[in-house]
Amino acid sequence: MKKKFIVASVLAVALALAGCSSTSSKTSSSSDAVSTAPVTLTVWHNLGDTQNGVALKALTAAYTALHPNVTFNMVSQPADNYFALLQAAAVSKTGPDLALMWCCLFIHKSYLANLKGLVPDAALARMGGMQWTAENFDLTNGPNIMLTDRQFYMGYYNKTAFAKAGVTSVPKTWDELYAACGKLKSSGFTPMVYGNGGQSLGALYYPWYDASYITIGQASATGFKDLYSGKNQWDSAANVAAYTKYAALKTKGCTNSDVLTKTNNLDDFLNGKAAMIIDGTWDTQKFTDKFGDQVGAFAPPFSDAPIKGVVEMAGQGISIMKYSKNITAAAGFVTFMTTDQASAIFDKAGLIPNVLGSTTSNPVNKEMLAFTETGGYTAYPMLDNVIQGDVVDAGNKILPSVLAGKIAPAAALKQLRQVWEQLAADAKTETYKLPN
Questions:
Q1: Do residues 409 and 421 share a domain?
Q2: Are residues 128 and 271 in the same domain?
Q3: 296-332: per-residue pLDDT in tens?
Q4: What is the pLDDT of residues 403-429, one digit of tens each?
Q5: Residue 382 in contact with residue 103, Cβ under 8 Å?
Q6: N or C: which end of the chain has fewer CB within 10 A?
């Protein structure tokens, strides 16, 4: 489309967002004023029937109700090779108009439209964490993803199981965790259940939730960036010691025996067989629906001292593919994602809306927010969001084998260092860089 037409649409949406109480109704009138020609937006995602999948479906339905000329072709792709499929489609320019995107290193930004200038500045300013979606994590460069919800990557625990086992407080260190595991196992529970259920992202469980807390547990505010730059090498003495304690979770009976092959770990937690699971806000509603006030959240205590950090960020969103022939319509939809109406849709799905100042009605979501808002915990991004993609890919294969006892921690971390050493010099600097 012509640039003049895009600018006219953006100005109309910007005017619609300014000065009235209902952002959603204003967006509707502005878009209809620009064009009522029928348009179909194809959307790719890998959300399945998760809470985020429910929210995305409701979001597109709400937008069509406001803009009857805009319909959506929702395409659910397999989770384990989603980004490979998306990148291949982007190269051939045969993919979707809009795509579910993780923040932040999962597809080259050159395939994504920069939202600066497509979405009004006032709308972008309503959203939290947008710096993580911009080149080099500098928001002045413009974001490439419209984030959906505030996500916590946390531990969840069954309070009833803890009470039956005589575990009187949530563990906050390695030693406290080992002790709690002993009591839970003696009472017939699997203390912590691992597997590739929940977010099924491959054949193995996704290790970066745990790796994030291992890094946080070393009590360094710059720990993530030090791994990126090499100031803290993957096979440093501190990392080997921490991952040795991680591997001890299985040898001390904290985990199920089949951590590399289990696929129904989420069911084990929901059925009361397992007392703890490391998961994320995309499953919180399932847990509260099942257990009510008998489920709680905790920071995985992968630390020698009481852990005081949590992983919190808006970890995914919707991107406009740069080759789309419907960029104006796509921009209207992602602008709608910044409205109060969209925020209410995410909350209804059991998620924490990303619109600044919005609220959550789920009690465990409120508990998680309290960690950083009133509890004095430091919020961190997830480690795989900020380290190099090649290291992430290698860690996906290597780190689960550490917990499973298939490879010694020192040998595994040496392999990750070797991957890091093979990176280009400008990919391991003191400043984060997104791939070009």
A1: yes
A2: no
A3: 999 999 999 999 999 987 778 999 999 999 999 999 9
A4: 999 999 999 999 999 999 999 998 898
A5: no
A6: C
| Alpha-carbon gap, residue 289 to 380, rounded angstroms | 28
Alpha-carbon span 9 to 25, nearest angstrom: 16
Question: 10 Å Cβ neighbour count for 306?
Answer: 12
Are 323 and 306 members of one domain? no
Average pLDDT in the 214-228 region? 87
Q: For residue 190, what are the CA distances in angstroms to 70, 227, 272, 406, 408?
A: 49, 33, 9, 21, 24
Residue written as token pair 């949590």 = 310
Residue 112 has a CB neighbour count (10 Å cut-off) of 19
Q: Are residues 220 and 82 in the same domain?
A: no
CATH of the domain at 328: 3.40.190.10
Q: Which two tokens stand for residue 208?
A: 């970066």
Query: Within this chain, do residues 129 and 246 fall inside the same structural domain, yes or no?
Result: no
Contact of 192 with 273, CB cutoff 8 Å: no
Which pLDDT does position 102 carry in this prediction? 82
Q: Which domain holds residue 396?
A: 153-311+369-427
pLDDT of residue 167: 98
Which residue among 353, 379, 411 closes a domain? 353
CA 52 to chain CA mean position, Å: 11
pTM for this prediction: 0.81
Q: What is the pLDDT of residues 105-153, one digit of tens each?
A: 566 778 999 999 999 999 999 998 888 788 777 888 889 999 999 889 9
Helix/strand number for the chain, H first, E second = 17, 12
Do residues 134 and 241 share a domain?
no
339 found inside a domain: yes
Centre a 10 Å sphere on the Cβ of residue 114 and count the other Cβ atoms it contains: 16
Residue partners of 347: CB distance under 8 A and separation at least 6: 353, 358, 359, 360, 361, 362
